[in-house]
């Protein structure tokens, strides 16, 4: 009989750096679309500043609300290029991270932070130009007392994230794609970018009609068979 896994899982397979580099060229919205409109976190998790972007393998952390002990442990363990993905239970009553911890993350080459919790020192983090995605800000500090888990699957922004999965984020929000699936989605993402560029060019030339619309309205029962807008 197998024993329960430890609270800290130290070794896990990450999406490779060359796949991260390729996938990072696409908008999160494109990847969410080609992934079946799955993997987008709830909109409560937003970029601290709209220009912020990140991409990399998830380094997952689970904490008790208002306590950041395990985040300190994660910072000590994460590899350059990792994205800290923190299940803070959506709590906004205190910040889980601020300038000191973000500075350490930046120095260590951690690609950014996504957390279902609050941060503080937002102006200083903005000046650092370090990518942080969170539920908001709160000047109140956390405790550092309570055990949690590292490297386990977490639920962040209503999306299940496993250690090593691909995470990408911009001003629209955060998208997660399973490590095993991201490479296979890249050709579809490239085609979608090309198709959308062609459609936008056609609209600018005056072709504004959505050619699928009448059929979709008939299927939905809004228009009768043979009827058009």
Automatic annotation (TrEMBL):
**Pfam family, any one:** RraA-like
CDD domains, per the entry: RraA_family
Binding locations of Mg(2+):
121
Where along this sequence does the record place binding of substrate?
Answer: 98-101, 120
GO MF annotations, alphabetized: lyase activity; metal ion binding
Q: Which UniProt keywords apply?
A: Lyase, Magnesium, Metal-binding
Q: Specify whether Metal-binding is a keyword of the entry.
A: yes
What name appears for this protein in its UniProt entry? Putative 4-hydroxy-4-methyl-2-oxoglutarate aldolase
The protein's organism comes out as: Variovorax paradoxus
Q: What is the lineage of its organism?
A: Bacteria, Pseudomonadati, Pseudomonadota, Betaproteobacteria, Burkholderiales
